[in-house]
Amino acid sequence: MTLAASALLLALAQSPDGGTPDAGTPDGAALFLKHGCVGCHPLDGAKGTGPALRGLFGTTVTLQSGATVVADEAYLRESIRKPGAKVVAGYLPLMPFFGALLRPEELDALVDFVRALPPLPADAGR
Amino acid sequence: MRSLLVVVSAVAATGCIGKYIRPTSEEKFEATPERLERGRYVVESLAGCGACHTPRPDGNLTAAEDGERALGGGNLLQDGPITVYIPNLTNDAETGLGGWTDDQVARAIRDGITKDEKVLFPVMPYTSYQLMSDEDVKAVVAYLRSLPPQKPVLPRRENELPFFLKRVVNAGATLHAPAVNVAAPAAGDAVARGKYVAHLGHCTECHNFGGKGARDESDRYMAGSDGAFEVKGVGKVWAPNLTSDPETGIARYSDDQLKAVLRTGKRLDGKLLAPPMSLMVPHFATMTEQDASDLVAWLRTLPPVKQQAPPRELDPAFAKLLGE
Hints:
The complex is a heterodimer. Chain A is mostly helical. Chain A has a single domain (3-16, 27-116), classed as Cytochrome c-like domain (Cytochrome Bc1 Complex, Chain D, domain 2). Chain A is 35% helix and 5% strand. Chain A contains 5 helices and 2 strands. In chain A, strand 1 and strand 2 (68-70) form a beta hairpin. In chain B, a hairpin with a 2-residue loop joins strand 1 and strand 2 (82-85). Chain B contains 13 helices and 4 strands. Helix content of chain B is 35%, strand content 4%. Chain A binds chain B through residues 35-36, 39-40, 48-49, 81-85, 87, 90, 92-97, 99-101, and chain B through 40, 44, 50, 56, 63-68, 70, 260, 263-266, 272-273, 278, 281-283, 285-286, 321-323.
């Protein structure tokens, strides 16, 4: 159910022009599915292996080290390329290194996608 | 009695391992684009070399990989009385493979023999990698050669091994006949391809661990580890049964459920995997759908064996980290 719900959310989030990786601007939502991000970061409020991403942008995150960091664009970018650099408290360093798998414009598209994810409604994931 | 032991040990220590050591060539493995791409995939996604060989803070295997220093080595694998130094796989001349020929690196990967004809401690899964095809091992070496040289996170140190274990390993007990002329499985043979994926992923190293090395294929093949793995700071973890036994194996789970373990780092009961398996997840998670499907197809062919893995015994601090 989690995956299905997340896929639905992604379908709704698809950009109207539906870009593909090889033609024009890559589609962040499609990349989010293609690389399996949704498997650990479900978008329907279910608890995933990785931190929840909806409404994350701009919030303050506590790291395993006890330090805090604001989830800005630089943080998202670094966390996709080098997931081990800033591991969120309560999570394990399980995320693949996507740095080698993503072209720069694909990384941009994923960052834009995560940045634009709306917060969960209060009753989600029940 | 004591003198007899000394003699036996001395023979074992200097024992003839020559038959396990093939001469190496000076061939330079050409770095074609296809090879570099395949090598990257084998190293990063199938074999997951970085799980051990990419530096982690303080060389601590339970911390996160530092992807900026890929394969620079220097971590310590600490399991009970064993401490093994994980070497640098980059081209650094002083601490890495800079002074090795391509074929010496290939021999180390598949046969466990170093440039100086020493035996690698078998936590390096050369028993599995002896199945790596000639083309794949060349691709792996070409890819390793393409990486920027790094320095290891901790300086080289001697392995700490119980006396007898060191003797047995140095005597060649873990070695096999040199791997030469190894072909890749046929493209259309899902089960053979899955077995190949399982060996590059070195699943057998833990899931078929018999205490003194791999069990024979006739002896509870892939039914889980006979002993616990004790990664420092984690606790005791047993590798579970991957045979098709309905109660203690994987028969009751769907293909998608099995693949999701590798993609999400969650066990089939929903709890998070612990090291050593969790160290592999960042790598296995990027395996292609085809390879994951073939792997499962091979697992489904394993004859059922009834063997229940004991529940893991995590150190309290690590259990808390896992949310338990």
